[in-house]
Design brief:
Blueprint (H helix, E strand, L loop, with lengths): L2 H5 L5 E4 L4 E3 L1 H4 L8 H14 L5 E5 L6 E5 L1 H9 L6 E6 L3 H12 L8 H14 L4 H8 L3 H16 L8 H8 L9 H29 L1 H12 L3 H8 L10 H5 L5
Parallel strand pairs: 2-4, 3-5
Antiparallel strand pairs: 1-5, 3-4
Helix pairs in contact: 3-4, 6-7, 6-8, 8-9, 10-11
Length: 259
Amino acid sequence: MKNDTLDRVRPGQCLVRLDELDIEPDYFQFRQIPLDQYHARELREALKREGTLEPLIVWRNPENGRLVVADGHHRLAAYREAGWSDPVPVEIHDCDRTSARLLGLAENAKARLPMSGTERANAAWTLVCAKAYSKAEIVKHTGVSDGRVGKMRRVLKKLEAEGEVIPTTWWRAMKLANKGEDYSNDPEAREAMIEARCIKLDEKVGKQIATEAEFCIEAVMLMLERRLGRKVELLVEEWSKADDFDDFSLEEDLSDLPF
């Protein structure tokens, strides 16, 4: 076991083996794309440099005593993909299942890989549909406004009264509750629509593009230029608004790629 791993275990935390950890992504994962490959790669690099990662947030299932990851799925993937054999630091929480679901949301609000507005809205919609959380809890843990949570509750009540099958996303719930309405001037609906199309696109080609970028980012850039033509300028314009764009160095970013 690495000494630096022991050094980074703080009070209230402990070390556990990877095979002691379970996952329930359908219950604890609120992201549209459960595993961001670029973020996972960053964590693997950090693991090589530092010898460990921030503690996983885990919940002890009172029914069987098993430890379930509530937050830290990217860190868990990084450990497993690295073939990690040492115990890893975790922070264990003992509570009921309903309360445990909020643990991951609370941590995601502080994460380096923040949830998008649509992901937060869908998380809030999921909690509203569960009917196990107060409005204050949903607002606190998702960052969604009090007014929007109220709207979600009204939409849920309407759909249930109409005997509809309740959609799993807030965008589809809005569409179903307001059949035939024009959403073109509704920023919230437009954001959700863009996110939904992004998910569909990612399912078709996202993994392939991400994999290719690992080996030859220049090929991906050339493909985008050929496919998008002058529209690629819109991408550059949007990317230039990112906080860390000024620190981006193409030469440095490509230096560790195998070509």
